[in-house]
Design a protein that fits this description.
Elements (H helix, E strand, L loop, with lengths): L1 E4 L4 H13 L5 E5 L6 H5 L3 E4 L5 H7 L5 E4 L7 H16 L4 E7 L10 H13 L5 E6 L5 H12 L1 E4 L10 H14 L4 E2 L11 H12 L4 E4 L2 H10 L4 H15 L9 H6 L6 H8 L2
Parallel strand pairs: 1-2, 1-4, 2-3, 4-5, 5-6, 6-8, 7-9
Length: about 280
């Protein structure tokens, strides 16, 4: 049985839907903190059990009978995130899983200025130290970030952001389809190549694309990290969240989120979704 954690989130749910397109429902199970949110999956024959990364015993029950476990990275940072992933890996091994998959990131690195990246690096070390075979899914940066960055610019006509670097923006749907294929077909021992969209673009290029799609000129204006952080704080954004975004720009300047790689397209057997096509749907 294939177990998917985080199935109430965007990526986890999409993986489940792709699995159900190619496998019977009785081969698929999900582990979530609130099973009532996925009652519709239970009605379709998916095994839905409560699993909380903070409660190891609940994961052991949720992972029962696992052949493969997909551990979707938790929405936490630092020691809390790494601890949660450690608990999930131990539960998967205890359940007898033959393979553990983890949603890592192409930009993972112990010294990255973007806080989730050191967590991914530490988690990869944990998983590679497990006896169970594993696959580290080195996903590209989610394309869903771009509409959020553009939102103020759609009103003001200016995309005011710190200096950045090219990012291989990648659609959740493509990553979900690829993950489902690996869960069903196997392969990819250890880390995958970067699983990315077809091109790495910076925000100057993104502003030009958004201008074309909306019919309104959106200027790309570079501001300092401090000015950007101060603007977010003035808008009511919590400091931790503001620092997180500033770290994202800093990591992109280092080239951590590029270049694009053809591995995802090869795995899918079709072109990956371009950021232009993604934004055409998101901004339409």
């Amino acid at each position: 049985m294939i177990i998917v954690t985080g199935a109430s989130g965007e990526l986890g749910r999409a993986v489940v839907e792709d699995l159900l397109d190619h496998a019977p429902a009785d081969r698929v199970a999900v582990s979530v903190r609130d099973p009532d949110k996925l009652a519709d999956l239970r009605e379709r024959g998916v095994r839905v059990r409560r699993g909380d990364f903070g409660e190891p015993a609940s994961l052991e029950a949720a992972f029962e009978g696992a052949s493969a476990v997909l551990v979707v990275s938790v929405n936490a940072l630092g020691a809390e995130a790494v601890r949660a992933h450690r608990v999930a890996f131990a539960a998967a091994e205890a359940a007898g899983a033959k393979r553990i998959l983890y949603t890592s990131h192409m930009g993972r690195g112990a010294t990255s200025p973007f806080p989730p990246m050191p967590d991914h690096a530490a988690t990869e070390e944990l998983l590679q130290g497990c006896a169970t075979p594993s696959t580290l899914l080195r996903n590209g940066f989610y394309a869903s970030t771009v509409p959020r960055l553009l939102q103020p610019a759609l009103t003001t006509g200016e995309l005011r952001v710190p200096e950045d670097g090219p990012v291989a923006w990648t659609a959740h749907a493509d990553l979900a389809e690829a993950t489902a294929r690996i869960l069903l077909d196997g392969g990819f021992d250890g880390p995958t190549p970067p699983l990315t969209g077809p091109a790495a673009l910076d925000l100057r290029q993104i502003a030009a694309i958004a201008s074309d799609l909306t019919g309104r000129t959106i200027r790309h204006v570079v501001v300092s990290d401090d000015e950007y952080r101060d603007g977010m704080l003035a808008a009511g954004v919590p400091r931790d969240a503001a620092d997180l975004l500033v770290g994202m720009f800093a990591a992109s300047r280092l080239g951590d989120f590029g270049p694009a790689d053809p591995a995802l397209e090869t795995l899918l057997g079709r072109p990956a979704t371009s950021i232009e096509d993604y934004l055409r749907g998101a901004l339409g």
